[in-house]
Specification:
The complex is a heterotrimer of chains A (252), B (227) and C (222). Chain B has 227 residues and is mainly α. Chain B has helices at residues 7-11, 14-46, 51-65, 69-82, 89-114, 118-126, 131-161, 173-184, 187-216, 218-223. Chain C has one domain (7-219): MetI-like fold (Orthogonal Bundle), CATH 1.10.3720.10. Classes of the chains: A alpha/beta (252), B mainly alpha (227), C mainly alpha (222). The interface between A and B is medium-sized, with 29 and 22 residues.
Chain lengths: 252, 227, 222
């Protein structure tokens, strides 16, 4: 393989990735790459394989074939160092998954202390910093169930940020939220994009994807069906994407 | 049919009763702590992908849960003796009770582990926590919280069941009672007093676990969620 | 001391095992009858009845079975009744089992969904009719798995009757041991025998529970 300068290497690259659940082919030769500082939006109908593709990047699913390289880790190989991979990759889920028995501060400081061995006082400063980034400084000592859904999701983003990941994955992070709570979460993600964070997001918010994404990957039946800049959403070339954006999905 | 009860004759032995009650609490405390550890390990073992460890954990739990404690105590007692090992009756009692309550704890903890949503574990994995760290920081406390009433009831039952240890002459409340009744010929009065003492001990334990719950689960305390 | 385990010893142990089953059945029937009364008393409209039954349950559940057995054995003697170990053990186990089964069944009766109670009331059925025609048939279904599970506890608990001299499996093992003095081997045989009686019931109870769980989830609102 030809060795490029590290800065031009993609942070995430999938090549011909295959994945089946039993007889069901979920990913059928998926390839795409994400450059440093790029925001990539994965869109498609439910069942198109977009969430599975995202979960493969952080190895929540093992692939059956193909190659996945994330921050230099060969994720497709069985001997991949999972803990090293997951220090480089942050992931945020649809259902927030904050730890209910820990305060927001403890949720955030847990991994930096336990995984990176950062001193408690330093981790607390870090918690304050990342909470400020998502506008939740005053919730430092609250428990998750005392927060609204939107606040919980912002806290979950802060928790990921505290590990200082090189790339962030967002798996339908606003799907469980009311429209007004969705807006506050999207604002946080927009700010992250503006700060230059590399991001891959699975989203149903077409208007948002159009506004923030550098590139769109439209998935259909386990394949990358159409890909290109955000403008493909307004001028799609395949009938499937035309139909997808035409069925009322494109609204902000 | 005439019933004549003479409680004062028995009650003058109150220092012995009190000592017996304290010994029973000690016995229960040792077995509870050790049994909770053993049971949690067995529950973790049951959940591993290693078929040998999972099978051994299941065999342990099912064997203990389907045989009487009295038989288990004798087996431990004579088993250790046949190996040429000499322990005090109290130590044998702690060992047998630990093995016994460990199996029940394992079943309860397993239910607690299974009640932890998959997303919690994925979130922890996503933060690069190791398997052990996930058990320790993410699963253990919420699992205990979910099964706390069942768990503490089991430990109170253990304290009551420890009376069986009198059969290997371990010193505890029932053994003390057996001694006093043979000395005073006032069996009925003796066992009534002992029954009352056990009821008090179980209330004391319940109160203790309630207090411990407040310490273990600060979120409940803060948000006023009852246990 | 001396001799080896022979067919006579095994016959004797077998007889003990039969008595273990016999005593378990007595405790289940006696405890079941009294326990049913306790369960109904726990949800009685009369406060004094509720209080009295709750106190009974609390007292029994706060006392070791061994002490209850001693109380039965010496208590019946103290009021001048000459009782056999079987009578004392049966009476004590009945009182003990009643407290636990009563609580289990109360929980089952109360877990019959509230709309069922209201519907029965709406049909102008009397309290007795509501109970016998609407609530109890459903409660019995819910109560079956935990009751089968509790039968395992009853079988294991009958081993304590050996302490007041009733010759069931445990006591017959002790008697055999007195002549052979091979305690570990003999108690191992005893343990295996108890396991053979209890494990099938445990499995059956688990299977019932799983089947019920499925049945219930089917009924849950979508």
């Amino acid at each position: 393989m030809h060795q490029n300068a590290p800065s031009s290497e993609p942070i995430v690259s999938l090549r011909d990735v295959q994945k089946s659940f039993g007889p069901l082919r979920v990913l059928d030769g998926v390839s795409f790459a994400v450059q440093r500082g790029e925001v990539l939006a994965l869109i498609g109908r439910s069942g198109s394989g977009k969430s599975t593709a995202l979960r493969c990047i952080d190895r929540f699913e093992k692939v059956d074939g193909g190659e996945i390289v994330v921050c230099g880790h060969r994720v497709d190989r069985p001997d991949v160092d999972l803990r090293a991979l997951r220090q480089d990759v942050g992931i945020v889920f649809q259902s927030y998954n904050l730890f209910p028995h820990l305060t927001i501060e403890q949720n955030i400081t847990l991994a930096p202390c336990a995984v990176k061995g950062i001193a408690t006082a330093q981790a607390r400063d870090l918690a304050r910093k990342v909470l400020a980034q998502v506008g939740l400084e005053e919730k430092l000592h609250a428990y998750p169930e005392q927060l609204s859904g939107g606040q919980q999701q912002r806290a979950a983003i802060a928790r990921s940020l505290a590990m200082q990941p090189k790339v962030m994955l967002f798996d339908e992070v606003t799907s469980a939220l009311d429209p007004e709570l969705t807006a506050e979460v999207l604002k946080v993600i927009e700010q992250l994009a503006a700060d230059g964070m590399t991001m891959v997001m699975v989203t149903h918010e077409m208007g948002f994807a159009k506004g923030i994404a550098d590139r769109i990957v439209f998935m259909h039946r386990g394949k990358v069906h159409e890909t290109g800049p955000a403008s493909i959403l307004t001028s799609p070339t395949t009938p499937e994407l035309t139909q997808f954006v035409g069925t009322g999905n494109l609204k902000s | 049919m005439s019933l004549q009860l003479d409680f004062p004759a028995v009650l003058e032995r109150w220092p012995s009763f009190l000592a017996g009650a304290v010994l029973t609490l000690e016995l229960a405390a040792f077995a509870t702590v050790l049994g909770a550890l053993l049971g949690t390990l067995a529950a973790v073992g049951r959940g591993t992908h290693n078929a040998l460890i999972a099978g051994a954990s299941k065999a342990y739990v099912e064997t203990i849960r389907n045989t009487p404690l009295l038989v288990q105590i004798f087996l431990v007692y004579f088993g250790l003796a046949s190996l040429g090992l000499k322990f005090s009756a109290f130590a044998v009692a702690v060992a047998a009770l630990t093995i016994n309550v460990g199996a029940y704890t394992a079943e309860i903890m397993r239910a607690g582990f299974e009640a932890i949503p998959r997303g919690q574990i994925e979130a922890a994995e996503g933060l690069a926590l190791s398997r052990l760290q996930i058990y320790w920081h993410i699963i253990l406390l919420p699992a205990v919280e979910k099964v706390y009433p069942a768990l503490t009831s089991q430990f109170v039952l253990l304290m009551l069941a420890s009376s069986v240890c009198s059969q290997i002459s371990a010193e505890e409340l029932t053994a003390v009672a057996n001694y006093i009744q043979s000395d005073t010929y006032r069996a009925f009065e003796t066992y009534i007093i002992v029954a009352v003492l056990y009821v008090i001990l179980s209330l004391v334990m319940r109160a203790g676990f309630w207090g411990l719950g407040l310490v273990l689960f600060p979120r409940r305390r803060r948000l006023g969620t009852p246990l | 001391m001396g001799g080896h385990l022979n067919i006579n010893h095994l016959m004797f142990l077998g007889q003990g095992a039969l008595w273990t089953i016999g005593l378990s059945v007595i405790a289940l029937i006696g405890g079941g009858i009294v326990g049913f009364v306790i369960a109904l008393a726990r949800i009685s409209p009369l406060k004094s009845v509720r209080l009295a039954s709750a106190t009974y349950v609390q007292l029994v559940q706060g006392t070791p079975l061994l002490v209850i057995l001693f109380l039965g054995y010496f208590g019946l003697a103290a009021i001048g009744l000459k009782v056999s170990p079987l009578t004392a053990a049966s009476a004590s186990l009945t009182l003990y089992v009643a407290a636990y089964l009563g609580e289990i069944w109360r929980g089952c009766i109360q877990s019959v969904p509230k709309p069922q109670w209201e519907a029965a009331e709406g049909l102008a059925l009397s309290r007795t009719q509501r109970m016998s025609k609407v609530i109890l048939p459903q409660a019995i279904r819910i109560a079956t798995p935990p009751t089968v599970g509790f039968m395992v506890q009853i079988i294991k608990n009958t081993s304590l009757a050996s302490v007041v001299g009733f010759v069931e499996l445990m006591r017959s093992g002790q008697i055999v041991n007195n002549s052979l003095f091979e305690p570990f081997a003999i108690y191992a045989i005893i343990a295996v025998t108890y396991f053979a009686m209890c494990y099938p019931l445990s499995l059956f109870s688990q299977r019932l529970e799983r089947r019920m769980g499925r049945g219930r989830s089917n009924l849950a609102p979508a």
